[in-house]
Design brief:
494 residues; mainly alpha; two-stranded antiparallel ribbon
C-alpha cells in the first residue's frame, strides 16, 4: 500500500481557472525541479494551457549537452598507466555529472523527463565502465525525452551502454542471449507478463542478434556484425519471417500498440500525478486509458500526451498536490531552485555526492528495475541522512552569503516583504513557499514560527512594531526556519 491513497476523481478535461500560487508551484515542482519565487509569481494568473504549451515547447527545443572532448574516446586515448587512466576516467565522469546536474537545474521538463527515462531504460555505468558510452546514452535520453516513443525504443537498444548492460553485445546468432529481449518487453514496453510468451522472447533474441562487433580496443562503440546475425525465420507475436532489429521494433508496435500505450501512460501517471494508479474507484485507470488513446492517435508521440495530462483538471486537483515523496535529487535541486540561492559547479557536485549517499547514484540505478521511488526514499536507512544532508546544504548557503536568506524571505512574503512588521506572516509565507501544501496543523505552524521569532523574542521589537526583514538578524531568522523545515515531514513531499 502506498503512503497516500489516490482520491483524485477529476477528469482529463482542461483546467480553465487562472493559476493560483499553489497550482503554479505544483506545475513547476512536477514538470521540473521547482522554481524561484519570481518564476512562480510570473505564472500566477496565467492559463494552464498557455504555460504548459510554453514548457513543452521549451522541452522540444532544448539542445542536448554538447559532446565533451572525450565523447569518442576508447581505451587507447587514456594513459597507459592504470592509476593515471582511472584518475582521468573519474575526472571525466565528474565533469559529466556536473554537466547533467546543471541540465536538471536549468531545463525544466526536458531533463525532468530525461531523468525519468534514465530510470526506465536503465543502464549502470558500473557495468559497462566506458565514459564514451555514458555520453551517448544520456544524449539518446535527452534527444528522445519528449519525442516519438517508438523511435526512442529503437535508438536506446543500439546504444553501446545498453548493448553492454543487457548483453546485446554478446547476442550471437548461433547462441542467442535473451537478456535484452526479455527486458524490452517486461520493463521497457509491455510490462511484466503482459501478452508475450517465452517463445516470443526466444525468437526476439534471435532477431536482435548481430550487434557484437566491439572492436579490438576497449570502449570502442558496438557495431553490427552480419556474420553473427541469426538468419533463420523467427515468429514474433504470430508474425513469421527472417526478422532483424528494425523488423522487431515494427512488429512490437504494430502487434501490441494498446499494451505499450497503457504501460507507458501508467508509468507517466505514477511519476507525474500519483504513485497509486490502482485506486479502488478506477479513476486513475480512466485517466491512463484517456492518455493511452491520445498516445495511439498520435503515433506514439509523447508531447501530445504530456500536454493533455498537464493541462487537465486531474493534474491540478487538490488531491494531486504534495502526494509524491521527493527523490534525493528532488530534495536538493528543489531547495536550490525554490530559494534561488547562488550555486556553482561545486554545489552541483555536492548534490550528486549527497544523492549517492542516500540511495540515488547518478548514472547508476540500483538494478535493471531502477530506483523504486516513493516510500523507499524515506525508509529507516535514508531518512536521517536526508535531514542531515539538507541541513548541510542550508548551512553552506548561509556561510557563503547570509544576505540571500533575507532576500528569499522578503521575496517569499510578497510586495510588502521588506516592511511587514508581523513575523508570523513572514514565517508562514516562507513555509508555504517551500512546502507544497504548508504544514499539517496549526500546532506545526506555531512550532515553526517560534523558531523564526527566537532571535528577537527578548527585544520587544515585535510588540512595538519595530521588527521587519531589514533588521540585522532577519537573515538568521530565515536560516533557522529553513533548518527547522528540512526536518518536517511535509518537506519530503512535492
Amino acid at each position: 500500500m502506498e503512503y497516500f491513497v489516490n482520491c483524485n476523481s477529476s477528469t482529463l478535461a482542461p483546467y480553465t481557472t487562472p493559476l493560483d500560487a499553489l497550482r503554479a508551484a505544483h506545475l513547476y515542482r512536477r514538470l521540473g525541479f521547482s522554481a524561484s519565487v519570481q518564476t512562480i509569481n510570473a505564472a500566477v494568473g496565467q492559463s494552464a494551457e498557455a504555460l504548459v504549451d510554453n514548457l513543452v515547447d521549451q522541452a522540444l527545443a532544448a539542445p542536448p549537452i554538447p559532446a565533451p572532448v572525450w565523447a569518442d574516446w576508447n581505451n587507447d586515448n587514456y594513459p597507459e598507466d592504470d592509476d593515471l587512466a582511472r584518475q582521468v576516467r573519474r575526472a571525466q565522469q565528474e565533469e559529466f555529472e556536473i554537466a547533467y546536474g546543471n541540465a536538471l537545474l536549468n531545463n525544466n521538463l526536458r531533463d525532468r523527463l530525461s531523468f525519468f527515462w534514465h530510470n526506465h531504460f536503465v543502464t549502470e555505468i558500473d557495468v559497462y565502465r566506458c565514459n564514451s558510452f555514458l555520453y551517448y546514452y544520456i544524449n539518446c535520453l535527452q534527444r528522445n525525452a519528449i519525442g516519438n516513443f517508438k523511435t526512442f525504443v529503437s535508438e536506446i537498444g543500439l546504444t553501446s551502454a545498453m548493448l553492454y548492460y543487457l548483453d546485446g553485445a554478446r547476442n550471437r546468432g548461433n547462441n542467442p542471449n535473451e537478456n535484452y529481449a526479455r527486458e524490452l518487453y517486461e520493463l521497457f514496453t509491455l510490462g511484466e507478463g503482459n501478452n508475450y510468451t517465452e517463445e516470443d522472447i526466444i525468437e526476439t533474441a534471435k532477431s536482435l542478434s548481430g550487434y557484437t562487433n566491439r572492436g579490438d580496443v576497449g570502449c570502442t562503440q558496438v557495431t553490427f556484425n552480419p556474420e553473427q546475425f541469426n538468419t533463420d525465420n523467427k515468429t514474433i507475436f504470430g508474425q513469421t519471417g527472417n526478422w532483424g532489429y528494425d523488423d522487431t521494433i515494427d512488429i512490437l508496435f504494430n502487434e501490441r500498440p494498446n499494451e505499450i500505450a497503457n504501460f507507458i501512460c501508467k508509468k507517466l501517471y505514477e511519476y507525474f500525478i500519483h504513485p497509486d494508479s490502482d485506486d479502488g474507484t478506477g479513476n486513475a485507470q480512466t485517466i491512463i486509458t484517456g492518455l493511452a488513446a491520445t498516445f495511439l492517435a498520435n503515433n506514439f508521440e509523447l508531447a501530445p500526451v504530456l500536454r493533455q495530462l498537464f493541462k487537465s483538471q486531474h493534474f491540478f486537483d487538490e488531491n494531486a498536490i504534495g502526494v509524491i515523496i521527493k527523490s534525493p535529487f528532488d530534495l536538493y535541486l528543489a531547495l536550490v531552485k525554490e530559494t534561488n540561492f547562488a550555486y556553482d559547479d561545486n554545489i552541483v557536485q555536492n548534490i550528486v555526492d549527497s544523492s549517492r549517499l542516500i540511495g540515488q547514484e547518478m548514472f547508476d540505478p540500483f538494478d535493471v528495475a531502477g530506483w523504486q521511488r516513493d516510500r523507499e526514499w524515506i525508509n529507516t536507512n535514508f531518512i536521517i541522512g536526508r535531514w542531515l544532508t539538507s541541513e548541510v546544504f542550508v548551512q553552506g548557503f548561509f556561510q557563503s552569503n547570509p544576505e540571500q536568506f533575507r532576500t528569499f524571505g522578503i521575496e517569499a512574503t510578497g510586495a510588502n516583504g521588506a516592511t511587514e512588521t508581523d513575523p508570523n506572516i513572514v514565517a508562514r509565507a516562507i513555509i508555504d513557499k517551500l512546502l507544497p501544501k504548508g504544514l499539517l496543523t496549526d500546532v506545526d505552524y506555531d512550532r515553526a514560527i517560534v523558531v523564526f521569532r527566537e532571535p528577537y523574542e527578548d527585544n520587544n521589537v515585535y510588540e512595538t512594531g519595530l521588527w521587519n526583514m531589514t533588521l540585522q538578524d532577519a537573515s538568521t531568522q530565515v536560516y533557522l526556519l529553513l533548518l527547522h523545515l528540512v526536518r518536517e515531514p511535509e518537506f519530503q513531499l512535492k
